[in-house]
Amino acid sequence: MFVRQAFDGSVIEEIATDDAAGIAAKLDRAAACFSNRRSWLPAFERIEILRRLARLVERDFEIFAMLIAREGGKPLIDARIETARAVNGIEGAAGELEHRAGREIPMGLTAASQGRWAFTTLEPIGIVAAISAFNHPLNLIVHQVVPAIATGCPVIIKPAATTPLTCRHFVDLVHAAGLPPDWCQLAVVDDNALAEKLVTDTRVGFFSFIGSAKVGWSLRSKLAPGARCALEHGGAAPVIVDRSVDLGAIVEPLVKGGYYHAGQVCVSVQRIFVHEDVKDDFLARFTARVKTLRVGDPALPETEMGPLILPREVSRVDDWVKAAAAAGAGIVTGGSRVSEHVYAPTVVVEPPADARLSREEVFGPVTCIYGYSQLDEAIARANSLPVAFQAAVFAQDIDVALRAAKLLDASAVMVNDHTAFRVDWMPFAGRHQSGYGVGGIPFTMHDMTSEKMVVFKMHV
After folding, report:
1. For the stretch 222-233, what's the b/e string if a residue is b when 16 or more beta carbons lie within 10 angstroms of its beta carbon?
2. Is the pLDDT of residue 191 over 90?
3. Which of 153, 167, 184, 266 is catalytic?
4. In the CATH hierarchy, which fold is given to the domain comprising 2-233+434-457?
5. What is the DSSP letter of 111?
6. What is the pLDDT of residue 39?
7. What are the sequence ranges of the domains in the chain?
8. Percentage of residues in the chain with pLDDT exceeding 70?
9. CB of 410 within 8 A of CB of 435?
């Protein structure tokens, strides 16, 4: 399989892929690790491994940043931020592990429970099978692999076919940090049937998926009985801009939230509802900034926006924008290809409610601007889709901010910040069709753990 640069399609490297026998062997090795309870690594060793891993990732900081930029197309400035976050996430998992513990279960509350002492311990849930996405090819891997290492679960990680090199280097460092190879294995497949075989194996205890809703929900329906899962899909993130805002202060964060990684972020700013009193002024300021975005080769330090991951995604985004324009939407900037791999940062005004830009996740460098006169109208439109993830409201009027925060259907509402804000210790989850379970390193560690209760009957 050829791994190509997202910016121009040139070959970076040819990489070997796994066949059915290879996947089966990896599952066998992971199962052997888990079934031999005497071989489970004690917590102190896992902590030491994670801390060594953090230092190794830190050592290879620029290697990771350039891999992310080249194979994934994320601008180097943002790829460096992703790498720094990865280091923080690894360190955070080690710190979380230091204070995780079971609990005492009260006894003696009834006559039947008298003379007993009960407590719980935490055990790994089993083999973790993880399928990751291209858009954060290091940090998403960290969020899927590191909690498994921390909790003592053997993990098999399948990166996106477009971005396997970052994941491969990370797994190599996991082994260099001291984790036995069979406890963390890389699976590179370009066959969906093989990926399905991996995650639906009866020995898998936890399935972690980041990617399209269609694939994620389909795989969830095929999991073995008893397997837990976490699905992270996307949405069409709404932002409400109240008339009380300082327009000069909100343009930059909204442009960042909308065009970061060319909009290829599951909580990217997509639908911006602006009060009619400030709509024209906002649109002029916002569009002016979008026009100045430096678009080009993501490996260059000055680039602010790079390519979409594949040329077919450029074609899809262009089709959606042209369809919205044909239905009456205004295109105030962009609306065309820059190259086979790059789409111009685009601002669309008032696409119809039934346009795909208004209904579905565009996953491209397009933001849509809508006017509103009443807050309840904006909230109703923001909540009108079957997807819901993170949302935002910009307001200096505290009543507006609190009302929107309460009434928006979202797993998180950012007040005076864009929808793509995230730190690695916070809960991160899609609602409805946008996902299942809760991400974030501490929350994933919880889900990858089973509680075992021990009850002592005392003879005193």
Report:
1. ebeeebbbbbbb
2. no
3. 266
4. Aldehyde Dehydrogenase; Chain A, domain 1 (3.40.605)
5. G
6. 92
7. 2-233+434-457, 237-415
8. 100
9. no
- Which two three-digit tokens encode residue 149? 């290492």
- For the residues 96-123, what does the mean pLDDT come to? 94
Q: Is 266 a catalytic residue?
A: yes
Say whether pLDDT at 460 is over 80: no
Q: Is 91 a catalytic residue?
A: no
Q: Please name the residues in contact with 443: beta carbons below 8 A apart, sequence gap of 6 or more.
A: 427, 428
Residues 417 and 388 sit within 8 Å (Cβ to Cβ): no
DSSP secondary structure string for all residues of 28-45: HHHHHHHH-GGGPPPHHH
> Would you say 156 and 26 are in contact if contact means Cβ atoms under 8 Å apart?
yes
In this structure, the strands spanning 2-4 and 11-14 are antiparallel
Please state whether the predicted TM-score (pTM) of the whole model is above 0.85. Answer: yes
Q: Which among 436, 438, 380, 370 is positioned nearest to 408, based on CA atoms? A: 380
Tokens of 454: 């021990």
Arch. (CATH architecture) of 237-415: 3-Layer(aba) Sandwich (3.40)
User: Contact 273/381 with Cβ under 8 angstroms?
Assistant: yes
Choice among 71, 82, 232, 313 that is catalytic: 232
Strand 387-388 versus strand 431-432 pairing type: antiparallel
